[in-house]
Amino acid sequence: MKKLVYAFQEGSKEMKPLLGGKGANLAEMKKIGLPVPPGFTITTEACNDYYKHDKVIVPDLEASIFDYLNKLEEETGKGFGLVENPLLVSVRSGSVISMPGMMDTVLNLGLNEETVVGLAELTENPRFAYDSYRRFIQMFSDVVLGIHKFEFDRIMDKLKVKYKLSNDTDLTVDHLKELIEIYKTHVEKQIRRPFPSEPKDQMMLTIRAVFDSWNNPRAIIYRDINDIPNNLGTAVNIQSMVFGNMGETSGTGVAFTRNPSTGEKKLFGEFLLNAQGEDVVAGIRTPNEINEMGNLLPDVYDEFVSVTEILEKHYRDMQDIEFTIEKKELFLLQTRTGKRTAKAAITMAVDMVNEGLVEKETAIMRIEPEQIDQLLHPTFDRKALAEASVIAKGLPASPGAATGKVFFTSEKVAEAKENGIKAILVRTETSPEDIEGMVTSEGILTSRGGMTSHAAVVARGMGKCCVAGCGEVRVEEYNKQFKVGNRIFKEGDYISLDGNTGKVYEGEIPTQEVKLSGSFKDIMEWADEYRTLVVRANADNPRDAKVAVKFGAEGIGLCRTEHMFFDEERITSVREMIISKDIDQRQAALDKLLPFQREDFVGIFEEMNGRPVTIRLLDPPLHEFLPHSDEDIRSLGKELNMDYAELKAIVEELKEFNPMLGHRGCRLAITFPEIYKMQTRAIFEAIAICAYEKDIPVDPEIMIPLVGHEKELEILTHLVKVTAEEVREEKRVVVNYKVGTMIEVPRAALVADDIAKHAEFFSFGTNDLTQMTLGFSRDDSGKFIGEYRNKEIFEKDPFERLDQKGVGSLMKIAIERGRMTRPEIKLGICGEHGGEPSSIDFCHRIGLQYVSCSPYRVPIARLAAAQAAIRNK
Ligand code: ADP
Ligand code: MG
Ligand code: MG
Question: What does pTM read for this prediction?
Fold first, then answer.
């Protein structure tokens, strides 16, 4: 028979897939001799079995659970449901990959009308006993019976008003007894039967609820956002309770071994005296900073500090630790690798290498490439920030800069985002139901809760700017407004948040660029030591080229020349060229464009200073350059001295049924060779200028788009070479250059051996290659791709993450056949996939020499390339 239950002493951290993260780490802490309350874990396999058996807990499993419960009774010397000395337990979910706040936990299970009396007598602390009981009813009802927590909060608030009490801790035994009666009546009314009192029933119902919580909507959304597979299942931990709510020498808290926001090597956390676990994270009372524990309970604090050091050394990574103190005795309830911001991740990784705790490779592998995106985006413009007016200050819960319009519900934020409006989510406190709004917002502001509140933890995980616990802000969600003093901010008003300082500003504040320095620079340099892929950027102008170089790009992998055409000064000549009736007229228009293009190339070459630059000749359908509205056509007609009707007819004629598959790319140059000729001339004249006037080196690669047939490339390569030769003669400049092609039409991949006769390099244009291989365009796929993802036809949007099986096969074929003709052929990718980590890993494996991506993704690509090299060693 399969073993479905493990005592903590039977497990270890390696057993995470079976025991879940929480269970495996509780076992591990026990193993290394730390004080962990005893308990056992029901495996993730048991959860998966539960789903396989149509949500039935099979008798074998139940028997096993009760067997381990007996052992727990022996170990603790207490009895489950025993009045004289009741064993109370927590029932805690624990998935393989931590999903903070996403799943459910019930504390103090085992209490009922009788055992509560026993507990009160035994501890000589009736207040504690009844406080625990009312908490149990609340949590059990929420998790198992589906009665929302706030209903109980409301009942408690009413009672507090009735007796004029301000804090939960002011409730006396009699108040609590009264409260419990009201709670129970409330529950009975809702479920039409009494609150379950038999401890074993309570336990089995809770286990079932934890299994069920694996598939609650917020857990599903969380897994979706974080790419966590749905079939992992959750384990359930049953653990004997320890009590932080036994008075002023008891308490509970959460601590990180290093600062999860900045990475600073200093214990960071919060605790509350006379409280139970949930109180700290729920943000109900504002907790104390962890170091204050040093004054209040100095001995326990010292012990705790040394435990945190042991844990960090043992796991060789920053730990996020939950603990409880029961009458000055310390207990550990959880440890896990702590979530951190990108900034903290980098700082810690570099520090840990310098401290000798981990190797460089480990440090590199620990940083999530996508996460560093947070660091590459603009921060507030300093000058504008200095002039902006601060309206309130809260806790700097998650760094970053956010500016947007205020909204008070998750739905409104999501709706705003759909409409292209930047939104800030403002709430009293957030709960897991707010996930969608948190994801779609620019930033989050809460008025309650500490640095480990739900809002803070989740925002840091997402790399979203968050200011939490901003007490001055009074949120009136129902009135769609918040107040600060006597000022009112309504839905739709602009505010700005600084997640580094906790300041909240009035109005919109412009943002500014970032630069690589300190630990970020170190980790990037280490990444460069390991990676074998070259990283280039897609840049169409000197400004982008400059950003790319700043972020470490080693060249330009795609310079799209058409973007240069849209400039106001040039577009008229471009249009003139398109509508010209004969070659002379076209040539005249092209002659006007040539100096502009030449100037553009000089600018880019200057920025790139000798690094390779791949210039793609004109690609989009000509129609894209023409005016469409009658009014615009009329005004162009005036400019070009043309009759409206005539011009309109030309515009109509150029319209295509399917422009993506129409007259574009190299097909333009097959019909109008003058265009590529002008572009080539502009490139080589720019090279001459760089050589003679500027004395800067250049390394140009000329790239022909949309080739599907060897002949196309043969003709156009010839054209480029002849033109280059002409300019060379005229200007007497010698320069090495390459001519190559994009591989973006499936046929090109299939006949790559022929294509390679004329191409010195292949650059995979995976945007078009994906469209043409899958047979749908990126622009039209929006209508169905969501449903395709829901039905798991695609795991990810194939335009974001390379379809390795399909499109990837074509790439492999192209490489293999291309090398048959030209073994030394240079290979790269310039589609958007060139900046996506899993696609970069694929590019590494199939032997490309470089990836090219947007300038802002260059550091992500450098890191992902290093990880690919390490992973595939
Ligand atoms: P989550 O995964 O949401 O943090 P946990 O299972 O860790 O849920 O439990 C919620 C809170 O209850 C935590 O603060 C935890 O420390 C506390 N807790 C859990 N089990 C016990 C226990 N046996 N004794 C005391 N407190 C507990
Ligand atoms: Mg926990
Ligand atoms: Mg293309």
Answer: 0.80
